[in-house]
Design a protein that fits this description.
Blueprint: E1 5-7, H1 8-15, H2 19-28, E2 33-36, E3 42-45
Antiparallel strand pairs: 1-3, 2-3
Helix pairs in contact: 1-2
Length: about 50
């Protein structure tokens, strides 16, 4: 299993989609939120 974490904006950029798509996937449970940084930035875990 991977232990890579992405910010929402980094994941969106790497995937070539908007941040709105990534947030929608988080809300639908298609992506798993990993944690929030001290600055309250949401990160997404890579599942594999």
């Amino acid at each position: 299993m991977f232990d890579e974490r992405y910010t929402v904006s980094r994941l969106a950029q790497d995937a070539g989609v908007s941040v709105h798509i990534v947030r929608d996937y988080l809300l639908r449970g298609l992506l798993r939120p990993a944690a929030r940084s001290k600055g309250r930035m949401k990160s997404v875990a890579r599942v594999g």
